[in-house]
Amino acid sequence: MALSGRRVAFVVFAFAVVLLSAGICAAQPVKFARYPHTFEGKLAFTYHGDIWVANDDGSDPYRLTNHMARDIYPRFSPDGQWIAFSSNRMGNYDIYRVPVTGGEPEQLTFFSGIDVMANWTPDGERIIFRTDRRGTWGTPLYTVGMDGELPMPLNMDRGYHGMMSLDGKYLAFNRQSFRYWRKHYKGNLSTDVWLQDLATHEITQLTDTNLKNFREHRQDVYPMWGADGMIYFMSERDDTYNIWKISLEGGDPVQVTKHDKDGIQYPAMSPDGKTLTYECNFQIWKLDIESGSTEQVHVDLGFDPKENLIEFDHVNSQADGFAPSPKGDYTAVDYHGEIFIVPTDQEVGEKKRVTRSPWRDRNEKYSPDGKYLAFMSDETGEEELWIYETETGTTRQLTDQETLKRGYMWSPDSKQIALVGSNRLFIVDVEQSTVEEVGHNSAYGYYLNDWSKDGKWLIYTRWRDDYNQDLYLFNIETREEYNISQNPFYDGDGKFSEDEKKVVFRSTRNGDRARVFVVSLAKVTVDRDDPLWREREKNGENGKEKKEEDEQQEDAPDEPEEDDEKKDDEDEQAAVTDDGGKAQPEDEKEQAEADDSDEGEEAAEADEAEEEEPTLVIDLDGIERRAEQISDNCYDVDNLFVKGDKVYFTGRDGSGSGFFSLKLNGEGERKIAGGSFHNITPTADKSNVFYKSGNHVYKMRIGSSRGSRVNFSFTVEIDKPKEWAQILNEAWRVMKYHFYDENMHGYDWDAIRAKYTPLLDYVGSYGEVYELANEMIGELNASHCGVSGPEKRMPNAYNSAILGFEMIPDGDYYKVDHIYREGPADKEWVELEKGDYVLAIDGVDVRAGENYWKILNRTLNDYVTVKVSDDPASGETRDVRIDSTSTGALGNIKYEEWVESNRDYVEKISDGKIAYVHIKSMNRSCLERFTQEIRRFYDYEGIVVDIRYNGGGNIDQQLLDILSRRAYQYWTNRWAAPEMGRRHRESIVGPKVMLINWGSASNSEVTPLGFRDLELGKIVGNPTAGAVIATGSYRLINGARIRTPGGLVVRYNPLRENNYGLNLENYGVAPDIWVENTPEDRMKGYDRELTVAAETAMDMLREREEKITEMKEAERKKGVEHVRYINSNHESEDDG
Questions:
Q1: Where are the annotated segments for Disordered (predicted)?
Q2: Degrees (nearest 5) of the Cα angle 718, 721, 726?
Q3: Alpha-carbon gap, residue 1042 to 728, rounded angstroms
Q4: What is the distance of C-alpha 1027 from the center of its chain?
Q5: Residue-by-residue DSSP string for 492-544
Q6: Does the pLDDT at position 696 exceed 50?
């Protein structure tokens, strides 16, 4: 099949890129050199993960560092003798320095978190760096000296990048992080330039000082001091990143550079403030501060790569995906984008290679007759359907369509393939290679489930306009579909019974966990609960009626059929053997018994089956009433298939995951085997199943409880430059089809790819490919985007042991300054108090100034002995044993301490009337915690719901439902407490305040906007991030992942089409009451935002109480008048 011109152009272009990549090491002007810095005629930069030094005109370059790790942010010392940088050569980024003339780098920081180089102090005595080692919602900038002493924080609440003025009096810095590769963002998440007086520690905001103008705030990043005393920084104020400057007194910034086609990145000022270097259009530039002139620097490099560009991955039975042949004697497996056919029994048959290319080949499926193996390949740039002929070994392309391929299914006669492309359904003729569209679903798309034996009918699951999924029968000839589930809950994954009179499927209609259901396609003519029917059944008088009524089941909708996207997230594993398919002797008896139980009766049924083709009879009248649940104990069912009078499926019961069987009449529910059975697939005769557990493929006979591993070995060649081209193109294609806006936010997505693809010539690692992909994706100005993935982790990585307390120098020793609540040191049996002195850690003496992280990075045991003393001069000491934890666990300990401190504070200032909860994330566990806390605070009179720093999730509906609840009744009795029976119990009666800030993102923006629109209370704080897209994740060829921002979120507006109002992406929710914590607030431990929120709740409570008092008075007056009226009537009657 001939390729279209567009496809040919892509293949030629990609091949040209590969050819250039092959010659990358020849001397040529480089691009994508990162983090340039210059001083006294020298230029340093990072290229292919190493530090290089050249003359500042680009001549005479030499490699300063040469390591498998990644060395970044080189910075010359003020005396020009050293270059400091960050490197992950110990498994995480630490600070190092190396002489400009070369030598072995010296490590200066020792912590298992992240330490990233910023700048030297002007005197050259210390290095400023950012880190994640301290703080709940942000960490100060730190400094470290040259003698390996303990790094110390600067006197600030948080900092991300900074530089001291040349006289050492001031620090210009950013307070929060930013994504350097995202373009055009405006909002409250933008970072600004701040100034600190290092003598008084006073902190002043210099840019974007008007908070209420937040929707026009741009990124102002990398503040630097020039020799003219001005602060230079990078900003998108003219919609393209350029260099701007501002005085330390503030005022309006002035634009310095005028780049318009591509923005600036990674600017850095020389130690003398005279020259600023930066990247622009992926090349190095210099800015002369005195004259304001700019100059591009050309650097020619020729070098030997530090690692092989071609590697060979020797595979031992691992697979990303698989497909058994119809007989089960062979298994097609894909691994790292290559497809092989391997014999299921290693001693019978030979392996075959199906594909050999740098592109991604996967999602293989045998035709029912075994003549073909279909698979998906992106060799043309688009992912298309290809065919491999098993007899001749030839391959050919079947489709040529610019659409997202969601899944496909073979017809029973192997002549056709049903294919889902985006939201359209196609039928592909295998011989003619023709493609015909037969269906279109505007609501989303289709999930193919089953195909009738005569080839005339499909079962598929599809979305409806109301966001529900139902099960449909589709007539291929007439193109008519029939809804056979008709239920407001999820119904999907339908399979025909063998006589095709019923469909089994899975549904959540009886709860939120999928169960097995069955529906009869024809009207049900008998009542199986009728005792007379049961009598005839017992006497064998019902004939075929039994068979017609015994097949009931249900299943859930298939996800897009991409084996590599299914996570092996079960801890259990089925019992397996590694003998390549041979049953172990001790299993033979069990195997025979299993065959007798499940196979024997089915074989007998097969002998009696009529050979006539069944005619599909569908009676839709009342079909929604016929579905029956037939599984009782199993839930989360999946992977259904029918054999004889049984349905087989994976699922869970009280003992965990497993593989189950069940008769279609609901009897005989049985757990065949326990463990994980991912992508379980039966052979054509359904006598065996194949499945994945971990990264391996297993085969198991239907009646057995044990599987045997399919053993094989082969070698996959990985040509890195070609694979990097595939990764970048797939990232581009994934965004093309998965991005929520088909107009790509108004940007030319084809042109953007054309801009970035040539840069593949200059990358030297997977990490740099991810950077390139992110630069490309960043052009869209969208949240919930990005590529991240595996790099080579350096050996000897350490993990710092955390003891759960902080220390400060005091004289000759360190003194305990803080013990984290509920941390490792906050135990009844740990005799440690604030103010104690630490004399030794893990048997090593420690003195003030020494870097104790060197000790804590290599502890032998989890329990660490700390020698402490109330007074070191007294000579009295005691040993304290502490069960250390990890840096990750410490983050949660700090978080819980922060929450409890806030709760105590709100309790105190509200006299116990206002409850406080913080929601850390919008996920199920946080929802359960929130529900428990609402029960706990049942009798409080109001609540502050804090969602600051909450990155999102998807529980807004449940949260708003709980917050919407009102008290409506009391149920009590004569002995009960008056308040005990209030309904609804999971509610707060009284004022509600929601607290937000710039760290509230995604679902934490949807929630406060819903809170406002539903008029549930008041919103306090400062605007949210403006990052609202429903997103997913997609696995790339090497295990990296790209986020897929595919869901539009808009405000409800009944006056507009579809009731679609404002798009919440790049919007940001503003508060009702504006307040923001200052740096001074945070440094003092004062939460101004929380204070205002609690005070607002108290004000609302007072207003509520006043209204209630007014209502009571009105009711009292009304009652008095009513009494007067009655009394007057009585008096008139008496008078009569």
A1: 532-617
A2: 80
A3: 11
A4: 15
A5: EEEEE-TTSSEEEEEE-TTSSS-EEEEEESSPP---TT-HHHHHHHHTT--TT
A6: yes
Superfamily classification of domain 890-1104: 2-enoyl-CoA Hydratase; Chain A, domain 1 (3.90.226.10)
Let me know if 784 is a catalytic residue.
Answer: yes
So what's the pLDDT on residue 584? Answer: 41
Is pLDDT at 567 greater than 50 in this prediction? no
Contact 484, 457 (CB under 8 A): no
Nearest to 521 by CA among 490, 475, 579, 566: 475
State the chain's mean pLDDT as an integer: 88
Q: Give the three-state DSSP class for 1060.
A: strand
Instruction: Answer yes or no: are the C-beta atoms of 811 and 1060 closer than 8 Å.
Output: no
Contact, 820 vs 890, CB < 8 A?
Answer: yes
d(CA 215, CA 234) in angstroms, rounded, equals 19
User: Which tens digit of pLDDT belongs to each residue from 888-946?
Assistant: 899 999 999 999 999 999 999 999 999 999 999 999 999 999 999 998 998 899 999 99
> Taking the domains of the chain in order of start, what are their residue ranges?
26-301, 319-430, 441-598+622-715, 805-885, 890-1104
What phi, psi does 798 have (nearest 5°)?
A: -115, 160
What band does 644 get if pLDDT is binned at 50, 70 and 90?
Answer: very high
DSSP annotation string for 127-158? EEEEESSS-SS----EEEETT-B--EE-SSS-
Tokens of 408: 């496909």
Give phi and psi for 1001, each to the nearest 5.
Answer: -135, 155
Question: 556 pLDDT band (50/70/90 cuts)?
Answer: very low
Q: Is 382 a catalytic residue?
A: no
Report the pLDDT value the prediction gives residue 303, as an integer from 0 to 100.
84
pLDDT tens-digit map of 255-305: 999 999 899 999 999 999 999 999 999 999 999 999 999 999 999 988 888
Q: 42-61: per-residue pLDDT in tens?
A: 999 999 999 999 999 999 99
DSSP secondary-structure letter at 1099? Answer: H
d(CA 425, CA 448): 9
Whether 396 shows a pLDDT value over 50: the answer reads yes
Q: Would you say how long the chain is, in residues?
A: 1136
Question: Which of 548, 1002, 1004, 1089 is labelled catalytic?
Answer: 1002
CA–CA separation, 997 vs 147, rounded Å? 41
User: b/e per residue, 1021-1042, with b = 16+ CB within 10 A?
Assistant: bbbbbbbbbbbeebbbbbebbb
CA 717 to chain centre: 30
Which candidate in 498, 554, 1065, 1089 is catalytic? 1065
Task: For residue 1113, give the 3-state DSSP assignment.
Answer: helix
Q: Does domain 319-430 have CATH number 2.120.10.30?
A: yes
Nearest CA to 48 out of 81, 19, 28, 24 is that of 24
What is the Cα–Cα distance from 89 to 81, expressed in whole angstroms? 23
pLDDT in tens, 470-498: 999 999 999 999 999 988 999 999 999 99
Active-site entry in 161, 217, 784, 918? 784
CATH superfamily assigned to domain 26-301: Tricorn protease N-terminal domain (2.120.10.60)
Same fold, 26-301 and 319-430: yes
User: Could you tell me if residue 842 is left (phi over 0), alpha (psi between -120 and 50 degrees) or otherwise beta?
Assistant: left
Residues 6+ apart with CB under 8 A from 942: 910, 913, 914, 915, 988, 990, 991, 992, 993, 1097, 1098, 1100, 1101
Tell me the CATH architecture of domain 805-885.
Answer: Roll (2.30)
* Residues facing 1060 on adjacent strands: 1052
Q: Is 307 a catalytic residue?
A: no
The DSSP code for 827 is S
Q: Quickly count: other Cβ atoms within 10 Å of residue 759's Cβ.
A: 20
